[in-house]
Write a structure and sequence with these properties.
Its main location: membrane. It comes from Cardinalis cardinalis (Northern cardinal). This is MOT14 protein. Helix 3 crosses helix 4. About 80% of the residues lie in helices and about 0% in strands. The longest helix has about 45 residues. It is an all-alpha fold. It has 2 domains: about 190 residues, Growth Hormone, Chain: A (Up-down Bundle); about 190 residues, Growth Hormone, Chain: A, CATH 1.20.1250.
Amino acid sequence: MYASREDIGYDFGDDSKVGSKPIKPNPNIDGGWAWMIVLSSFLVHILIMGSQMALGILNMEWLEEFNQSRGLTAWVSSLSMGITLIVGPFIGLFISMCGCRTTAIIGGILNALGWILSAYASNVHYLFLTFGVTAGIGSGMVYLPAVVMVGQYFQNRRALAQGLSTTGTGFGAFLMTALLKYLCTEFGWRNAMFIQGAISLNLCVCGALMRPLSPKELREKYVMGNDSEENQAKVLSQSTETIKSNGVLGEEPEKKEEAANEEVLDSVQHIEIGGKSGSGRSMYGLRLFKTVSQLTVTVRKGFALWYSSYFGAASLFTNRVFVAFVIWALFAYSSFVIPFIHLPEIVKQYKLSRQDNVFPLTSIIAIVHIFGKVILGIISDLPCISTWNVFLMANFTLVTCILTLPLMQTYIGLAVVCALIGFSSGYFSLMPVVTEDLVGTKHLANAYGIIICANGISALFGPPFAGWIYDITQKYDFSFYIAGLLYMVGIIFLLIQPCIQKKQSREKSTEEAQV
């Protein structure tokens, strides 16, 4: 038996009360249009995360073009990766107010604009603004909705669905590395970025596919979740079954807010009915007023949900396991990003360019990463397997590989370690699943926004730190060692906090029994 979100005791009250009357399952949950959502998310991962994993190619071009230090030049890639993730909490606010579809379409336009403007860069600092900030924010506005929509459309096969959609990162890293190499060779890096900007407009199409679920469809999903609770209760291992959290988000504030919003709309409706006998101009004004009122209600409602998740009485941060998860994320992502950014330089330093040109090490990571996500997703969906345990085992494997990589100075040795890095990093597909099980579907956008924000901070400072260490020591060894040790600290937090909570829960249960 494994702990579900209800066992953890962190219920945000998003599960509707279901009566004894059976409700027919929605065909779009775990099937139908849900697979179109997976396809959309898969393409988003190719165009955004895949492109960012291939930035090592452009990084070398920028080093030659602008003659700046490795540490300063690496900030361009780090800003793009970091901001994509750091803006997660603010994108959660956009999603609460505008929905995933609108947010993703706007993000696709912004991302394409960032790539195109970067083609006219005159220095590295120009790239900070156009590629790092503009394209980074656009990427974040598409990436988070792509993950959230898969979580909304799937109940019984969430890990597999997230695994399939996030394999786009691996496919994208492989395809975009080859594409950017070809474009840079044939047309130069400036034209390559212009062409990539045009390709990125396809993100708007991906956003258009993100059809939102109606409240009725969401309720039907919860019914399905209740019917298969035993199969879904796999977030934490047996050591964390009885974790109890502090806050429960009350329904009363939300009901009061909804009642106030309804009053506003009803008053507008009465004014509109009473003014039908008026002039055409006054009717136009009433319609405009109604539209503005509805928009205001939507914004207020979205902001209230966003605010309560971060600063309310039942803030996400009252869940200590979730806080440990955030601390882990602060250290984890840079350990995965650093090899992608600096492997081309390491290969050149070890004089292995000839072998790497035949089969690039980054491509090995990308290809195996695809299989890692799917296989780990399938394993995690098995009834007898804990998603949390699979997640931890993959993390231990990855940190071991990061610490081992500097010791490998032959192509074969580096290829083996890179393959293990690619497979174990497949745990990324489990992150949304673990997050959803901790906080529920209703708060997934805000909670996962915090997680990827922490990942973004890690990605932002990791590669420049590695470049700075290289500028001092002329070696990348210490960069990998320090990144690996910090990563291990994050894993220890994931292990210790549930044990502490388990002990506290037992003590509390003992006290209640004595009373």
